Amino acid sequence: MTPFTLSRAAVRELDHRAIHEYGVPGVVLMENAGRGAAELLVRLNPDRQRVLILCGPGNNGGDGFVMARHLQNLGLDVDVWLFAPSGPMPEGVARLGFNPQLSPDAAVNHQIWLRSGTYVVNVEMNDPRMDHRQYADQITLGNGWIVDALFGTGLARPLGPPFDEVVSAVNASGRRVLAVDIPSGLDCDTGEPLGPTIRATHTATFVAPKQGFANPMAQPWLGEVHVLDIGAPKKLVDEYRISKE
């Protein structure tokens, strides 16, 4: 098939049309994305090393929760850290100290992971009392693979605390990194860092490479790029492919 790329706006539009015009639920697209990325990581990780998945509050983080479930089903040891703001606890729910504010589809997969009885390390982004350096230290001293599911193609601003410290720790750790869709901090359209940026060993990108990947300056951040299908209808995807010809 003819290769093509997707801009930030085109990614958003394609997802919206797949959901609202073709009736593919967003959570199904997320399931396909996460499962495909998990299967890729199993192939890249023949030694079956432990995997640390860093999840953000949006759909990229939701992909990470899907990955965690499938990696666990395939027999790998998985740790999940969730970086999200906390909101007020719903009435009638016992206060556990953290109520992550997530995108709707990410929240679905977060709940599936919790109900499976698996522990999540919660990093509350809006708690001024929290010392985020402890998490950076654990990343630096740990081993095994890291999955970057912090932020996706929609990011258009530099990463601030605590993500700047986390990104620095990931890059200093020497561990192999699989970025989900795009390395967090890399601009989808230009291929240049917006600020602190994950330096990935591999990038599992969905549907098509992103526009900025064509920029030679993006290569050190992307590593090897793998394009994965997420089940968006071929008729829809072909519209974007033809528009690039």
Helix-strand category: alpha/beta
CATH architecture: 3-Layer(aba) Sandwich
Total strand count, please?
7
Helix content: 25-40%
Ranges where pLDDT stays below 50 over 5 or more residues in a row are: none
What portion of the residues fall into strands of 2 or more residues? 5-15%
Give, in order, the helices and strands: HHEHEHEHEHEEHEH
Number of helices: 8
- Global outline: globular
CATH fold title: Rossmann fold
* Strand order across the largest sheet: 3-2-1-4-5-6-7
CATH homology superfamily: YjeF N-terminal domain
What is the name of the CATH class? Alpha Beta
Rg from C-alpha positions?
A: 17 Å
Taking the alpha carbons of the first and last residues, their distance comes to 11 Å
In short:
The protein is an alpha/beta fold and 245 residues long. The chain has a single domain, classed as YjeF N-terminal domain (Rossmann fold). The protein has 8 helices and 7 strands; from the N terminus they run H-H-E-H-E-H-E-H-E-H-E-E-H-E-H.
